[in-house]
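Schema walkthrough. Field components (list of strings):
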Amino acid sequence: MFMLFSASKKILGMNARNLTYIRPNNRKKAKRLADEKITSKKLLKKAGVPVPRLIAQISSRRTLENFDWTILPPSFVLKPNRGLGGDGIIVVYGRKKGSTDTWVRSNGKPITITDLKMHIGHILDGEFSLSGTPDFAFFEERLKLSKEFRPYAYRGIPDIRVIVYNKVPVMAMLRLPTKESDGKANLQQGGIGVGIDMARGITTTAVQGKSRIVEYVPDTRLLLSGIKIPYWDEILHLAIKSQIASGLGYLGADIAIDRDNGPVILELNARPGLSIQVANLAGLKRRLERVEGLKINTIARGIAVGKNLFGGEIEEELESVSGKSVIGPVEKVEIIGIANKKITTQAKIDTGAYSTSIDTELARELGFGPTIDSFAKIDLTEFGEVTEKGLGIGKKIEKKYGSRIPHLIETSVTWSSSGVTIRPIVKLTFVMDKKSITTKVNIVDRSDLKYNMIIGKRNLGKFLVDVSK
Amino acid sequence: MPELYYNPLINFLLMQHVDISTITLLLLFPVIVTVVVVLRQIVGIQAFGIYTPSIITLAFVFIGQQRWSDIKYAIMVYVTVLCVGMMMRYVLKKLRLLYLPRVAITLTVVSFSVLAILAFGGSMGRTGFASAPIFPILIIIMLVEKFVTVQIEKGSRTAIILAVETLFIALVGYTILSPTTIIGKTFISFTLIHTWVVLLIIPINLFIGKWTGLRLSEYLRFRDVIKKIQ
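Field assembly_structure (string):
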């Protein structure tokens, strides 16, 4: 019971959202603005926030009758100004071949000017707006699916919901349209919400619908975690900028990524839903409390605060789940050589290599000079031609010289793009990400390469490599 | 009739020829509304706003004034209204009518359906149903407007869930407040004696109005988050 009580201090419920965040922060005027798509579009555009381009607006029967249909591009979206939950929206993919008055809809069916006129008539009559109040219709540019999201989206366009409070982005999720949601990115209709680590813009956990935890894109083996959101900083920037422009103190900004133009603001929400907490498996209330009253002067500062306070959870999470630590493609390593000589260097993590190698020069500094020198003296020709079948050579060298070369453990015969090399192998210990590893490493000339150490698969068992780090 | 142990206010009203059932219903109404508020704000049952569940509860209490079992007629009317409302959505969808005419047509069909079940009840010898008071039944019929609105805005699924929740709230309210249940009977005589206690509703609502805790239903909704946080 006590535990439940403490959870309720971290999770944002409907009561707290309405009373503590929406009521005092979102004035009526600003709320209305967010509800009217054309007005908020114009306002955002004026503030320099990119939005899908408005092609035309139809506000009465008369403008509908006199409308010049030739101005419509081959692909566009028709929307009601005050539509709810994506109702009444028509998405057109292109003109029908050889026709000027017929287009093809997203579901593959044709649509003519007469059909469009009828649909706009229904919009004007308020068919799709709240309890039938008369409405406007408008045409806007159709966004194109960016290639990063192509495998994850079913039909429609995914978007990124960012909750912004006091100019700080506090929580975000990627919303994916699914078959179940009929191509809409709406969670209530069965879309998927994927939590995002604020610091790095990488997805974490996911929810489908209101509270079903999922791991994969439905019917596939595509993992929902670990998706890198492109333009992450720009997305946070836009979200904060739109908050400032809208006058809403607490808002959910929906941002889509267009294949050609990058991130654009799709919609602003004055009453963003609470399921984002399930997608992130994190509570919103504590986050909002931490941001409250902070003095944020610039957008850059807002982004930095959001990233610092609410990021870095993926790593901890992966580490706690797998017991492995997450490292990047290049890591700082401390090598302990002969007589406890310590050298710190940058090592390249190479999952394509089996074992770990260090550069000859580095090996000398570590005290393996005698090993290298005496190894170089061996006349390798006495073992005959080195062929791919000649794996036995290493053993022969060990047998003959092993006792005479200091610190030599083994020799390795390596075929690589630069030909066959026979390398001495020594034993040493290195410390990476606070983990100490004692292993065999081979010594090779890497003087023309950027890093003087590569760490191969054999020593990476305790780690997970995150290439974006 | 004035009773010695009634609150002086009640006795005064009775002496001015105010009907006892008028008094009890007026005193009960704020309590009904508060029950709805608690179920919505603290338990987290959504239902159709505050007005609809309150008025439906009142209609239920009114219909069940004589016999406790009369509630089944109220439920029958309620279910009929919903079924017809739902069916009419699909029938009228293709016609693409404006909102108000569409509701009017739906209401017409609902009225005839209620007449039909009244006739059916009568023919089965259920005279209690046939002679049920008409105003509460009309109130239940008006529910269809709310139902249609939600259907348009949020879809049939949500509308059905909200309708079931509304029915649940009304039944809870009925159990607590109907003069034909033991709880209800005790409660009503209590209010007739300690009338001013009803005013406690104001501080109760002041508290609920400032309460920002999680609703019970949200503990369920966020169970995975709670598990994760701990």
